[in-house]
């Protein structure tokens, strides 16, 4: 079985800085991290490999060359190969353009039985890239999975929790599944894999490697959405008020404060 896991390198939320001219997040290499929801998806792939030894896991990332150091961390936990789609012409791509570029990369890399993604990325939180990739590839898709079980070489069982309900889906492969964040926690690195990662170099591809690629659908100009403006919120003026007692006036004041933030 061939499994592909899409993993994005995002900026640590506590270290985010914005470029006022381009209206994009500054991708400072020292603050990059692998997207948590994508790592949950990777853990499911690794669990499948624990049971079925003939499983081959490939990761696919899209970003600048600076992402390479974080991609090597994926080898440390047991991935077989990693691919980085890196091309300056993709800079500024929104979810629509990103999904198109990733789908073309997947087509280039070959046929996969199962494609796994995190439900969303920390820097976007749109949750629409995975289903768009599936639509481009014309394969089934299930979102917000909480568990994945291989039934046989042709089918998998996917669980999805919604409040007090548990849904089970049987899906025919090939398929794409997006995984809920924190539904699984990535295992710790293994020494033998860490040694392998020291000399490992991810495969680098660009849009020039793709056939029939539409350059008008990627980058800032090819995106269907854009950031008009952004405001950095300051918490310096936040005040803390302590109310002691249960007088009616105090209760009304507390209720007023609470309703302002609902």
Features:
14 strands, 7-stranded parallel beta sheet, alpha/beta, single chain, 262 residues, ETF_a/b_N, ETF_b, Electron transfer flavoprotein small subunit, electron transfer activity, Rossmann-like_a/b/a_fold, 3-stranded antiparallel beta sheet
How is this structure best described in words?
The chain is of the alpha/beta class and 262 residues long. It has a single domain, classed as Rossmann fold (3-Layer(aba) Sandwich). It contains 7 helices and 14 strands. The strands form 4 sheets. A 7-stranded parallel β-sheet has the order 9-13-8-1-6-7-14, sandwiched between helices. A 3-stranded antiparallel β-sheet has the order 10-11-12, with no helix packed on it. A hairpin with a 2-residue loop joins strand 11 and strand 12. Helix 2 packs antiparallel against helix 5 and helix 3 crosses helix 4. The model has no long low-confidence stretch (mean pLDDT 90). GO terms for molecular function: electron transfer activity. It comes from Caldicellulosiruptor acetigenus 6A. Pfam families: ETF. This is Electron transfer flavoprotein small subunit.
